[in-house]
Write the structure tokens for this entry.
Amino acid sequence: MNPLFLYMLKAAVALAVFYLAYNLFLSRDTMYSRNRYFILISFLASFILPLITIQTKEPLDLQFFGQDLTGVIISGTPEVSEVRQGIFNPDNIFKILNIIYLTGIIALGLKLIVEMLQLMLLVYRRNRGDNKVIRLNGNKVSGFSAFGHIFIDEVLSAGEEEEIIKHEQKHLDRHHFFDILFLELIKIFQWFNPFIYMYDRSLRAVHEYQADEECLNSGIPVVSYQGLMLNQVFRTRVFSPASRFSNPTLIKKRMIMMTKKRSKAPANLKILLVLPFVALLLIIFSTCAKKSFDSFTGTEPLTPEETVVPASPPRPAPVKEGDAWIVVEEMPLFPGGDMALLKYIAENTQYPKEAKDNNIQGRVIIRFKVMDDGFVKDASVIKGVDPILDSEALRVVSTLPLFSPGKQGGVAVPVWYMVPITFTLKDNSAAVPPPPPPPPVTGSNSPSEPFVVVEEMPMFPGGDAALLKYLSDNIRYPETARANNITGRVILRFCVNEKGNVDRISVLKGVDPELDAEALRVVASLPAFKPGKQGGVEVPVWYMVPVTFAAAEPKTESTTETPAGNN
């Protein structure tokens, strides 16, 4: 999403909240100066608050590791290929929204410029020396003020003209025109926000109330003044950015406010009722500074209060498969990111004609290495459909341009990558791809080698949030470790087997024997998961949990191990 548009959406929310506060607590008081300044300050606050974030730590943060690309759908129909889960459709929607938004900005901006030029041209043509009153002919406007000048209809009687000039002079004295100009500028960027038009009406009303009050305080009789307003109500307006005497939509409210009992000074304390709304906005706009765990190696720097003080620094545990890494500190990056990679594959994959003719479709999963020089090598099919489709998927992957290589310890290293490519014929959507092969078996009496990623990942009862809560609630900081200020992050790896039970628990990265033992104890006590499935068959899957022991309370982060392929 366009950052400007996102920022304006946040500002729109703030404007809405402030307007609701104004309408609930302030709008019915006769404290017109207070109301005016509140409206103007709320404009400024609405554009400042989205820029403020309260940085907090989020102790329970689920992260996924490796490159687990959602996949690409290649359609056999003539339409342009689509990326799964609407990779392109949301982009197109956002582009259309951005175009519409920018078009509105341009249109309203041009409208305001034209109106300002018209007003300045009127001042230039009709101004007579130091006289700030400009009389118009044929515009059927009773009176308005702008740019330090008062514009009135030359057909008004002497008495009407005098009272209208007094009214408009009050607008000029309080610089109301610049309030309206400020509002019009905000309206250019908030044109889609209905609350900005409510603000427009409220601010103009406050201006009229102020001018009316000062005119009546100068000695003009209320009945005479109200009669003048009614006489001018049917005259049409000329310029929306100007302060106008006879705004028909405000006549009734103005008459009510003229005779309303004045609000007492303590009514100003109502402004304090707005503070909870400000707090609400800060909460909405603030973001949590998530402490993400970037790799199995635990090399992410800890904050000062979490500094590890073991007897000797722990050595990172390598996580590799063969001569390539599964997870590294800095994963490989395709030029433009993962979405650009999916787009490249979608645009360059052709549905083989022979496969279409024979109604062959399904999901091909390709695995490859991104080498330390960024080149793609060792591409292979880890789940095939048909040799024709498999070959096309391999062909496209082999044409991928250079990646930014992955890095471990600051050194470029080869890293496994995986991308599923789905070939589908829209005129036969019911066709189901063949199931994947069953998990490999190492021997007749030995358990299956756990998968790294499967079609249906294991699920803790209640979801990942419940898993994190369980760990957090059940971990107890060893007293000896706490007394010796031993802190750090223990990384555990375990397997969720075919029955959902936890086994094969091991410490990938330890900190201290007591902390390691406590982390192992709690993970061993985990209740049964819903087992993972591959091709509809329950299979064992690797899982990983980093547990951070800090000075206060231990924090847990959990993830399934989802790098670029299966073990």
